[in-house]
Structures are given as structure tokens and as C-alpha cells.
Amino acid sequence: MKLLARDKPERRLLDESRRTRAMLWVMAIMLFLTVLAAALGLGMAGASRTLDRQLAGRLTIQLVEADAARRDANVRAVAERVRALPGVTRVEEVDRARLAELLRPWLGEAGLDADLPMPAMVDVDLASGDAAAADRVARAARTVAPAAQVDRHAQWLSPVSRFLTIITWFALALVLLMATATTIVVLLAARGGLDTHRDTIAVLHMLGSTDMQVARLFQRRIAFDTLLGGALGTVAALAVVWLLGQQAAGLGSELLGGVALAPLDWLLLLLLPLAFALLALVAARIGVLGTLGKTL
Asked: What does the pLDDT look like over 119-166, one tens digit per residue?
């Protein structure tokens, strides 16, 4: 028992069960929100990269021709001409039945009438998304059918990509805001501990303890509370992220599927409690040393 009583005097100095529990749960909540914000940012960044990669080299050639026989001939000729171009990885005519189903909400059953002229569409995938390759495809298609229209998917979905980028930066700002709030909480906790133990610290100074030695007592305890509370909050947040990821994957959406976190993203999220513990340690040292230098 005497050995236990002599063990780790800094625990006796900072023996504040209520304050410790409050600090631990505050840090758990802070890390819970931080991990959620970081997961949102990483997911949106991954979705943005996936969207850009999928759409950068994807084109659609549209052929409008009232004569069905001539339209079909033009489609075959355009497909052969484009397929022969360098950098083209896939050329495929869009199924007419699929087009009819897409037109059904606007044209009703009349849109399925065989006598009604329907545009033909050819999907083209390029190895790269540079404008020169897209221009070559457009010129080749218009050589066969001067009225052919070439649409770049990236052009139409660029607002979606910009929105994902904005969400990514917003999530990063939230993480930085939570880090700032954590620093403030640590400074307040350190100064509160100094006020509570002012007399004890004065005795330690008379016994020869330096400000740095006193600061180590506080920073170790605060860093430990931050790490433990952060670990609890991180585990809870990761569980929520995993459940949301499972729900998104079950929807079958190609865009939502790109929001899934990569293994490196999970690793970064797991490192957040350690990063915040280091931040708390540095903030506690600076706050304690600054206060001791002014008041003691």
C-alpha cells in the first residue's frame, strides 16, 4: 500500500475525478465530431477523384436523322471511324430500348412508337481526358455526319464536381475548427488546474521544482485524458461511418459508391486521436508555462 501511495505523485497532485471525467468526455465528443468531419472530407475528396476519372474521357455522340436506314448507316460508319482513332478505348451504341425508357417520362407511350424518329447515341471512352482527343473524335464523327453533336460528360457534371470540392474544403475547415476548440479547452483545463493547485505548486517551487517539471505533471495528465477520450470518440465515429458506408453501398448509386473510404483514409482517421493528444500536450505545456511565468 505504501508503494502504491508513493507511485506517480503527479496523479495525487492532479487527483480531480470529476474534472478528469469531464475532460475525458469533452475530448470524446470533440474527436467524435472531428472524425465525422474528416470522414466526410475524405469521402467527398475520393468521390470527386472518382467522378473526374470516370468522366474525364467519356463522350457521347448524338446523331439525329429522320430516315432510320440512313441513321443506322451513319451510326455504324461513325463507330468504325471513331474506333480507329488513337486513344479510344471503347465505342458502343446506346441501346434503343434504353433510350425509349428514358424518354417515356416526357413522351409517354407515344415515345415508344417505331414511326417516331429517335436520335442515335454512341458512347465513347478515351484513354485521357484532354481536349485534343475529344476534338479528334468530334471531327471524325462530323466527317461522316456533319450534324453530329458531341457532348463531354465532364462538362455537364462539372457543377457536381465543384460541389464535392466545396464540401471537402468545408470538412477540412471543420477539422481545423475542432482542433482550435480542443486547444482552447486544453488551455482552460490547464489554467483551471493551476488555480486549483496554486498552493501545492508554490510548495513544489520552494522545494526546488522548476516550471518545466510542474508543466510536465499537467501535460501528461491532459494528454492521457485527450488520448483516452479521443479513442472512445473515434471508435464511435468510425462505427457510424461504417454503417453509413454500408447503407450507401446498398443503394447501388455509382456516385455514392465513390464516397467509400480507402484504406489510407481509415488509417488517417485512426491517427486523429494521437494527433489531438500531441496537440493537447503542446497546448498544455505552453499554457502552463505561460501562466506560471506570469503569476508564480
From this structure: 788 888 877 767 777 778 888 888 888 878 877 776 666 777 788 889
CA distance 290 to 35: 30
Reported in sequence order, the residue ranges of 153-278 that DSSP labels E, i.e. its strands, are none
Which residues are within 8 A (CB) of 189 and not within 5 positions of it... i.e. 6 or more apart?
19, 23, 222, 284
Q: For residues 32 and 158, which has the higher predicted lDDT (pLDDT)?
A: 32
- Could you give the CA distance from residue 193 to residue 123 in angstroms, rounded to a whole number? 67
pLDDT tens digit string along 254-296? Answer: 555 556 788 898 999 999 999 999 998 888 888 777 776 665 5
Cβ-contact 288, 230 below 8 angstroms:
no
Residue among 177, 183, 175 nearest 27 (CA): 183
Grouping H, G, I as helix, E, B as strand and the rest as coil, residue 41 is helix
Distance CA 171, CA 48 (A): 14
Kindly report the number of other CB atoms within 10 A of residue 153's CB atom.
17
Residues 6 or more apart in contact with residue 111 via CB below 8 angstroms: 100, 103, 104, 118
Q: Which of 49, 55, 56 is nearest to 262 (CA)?
A: 49
Q: Which residues contact 286 (CB under 8 A, 6 or more apart)?
A: 187
Maximum average pLDDT range among 49-63, 98-112, 176-190, 282-296:
176-190
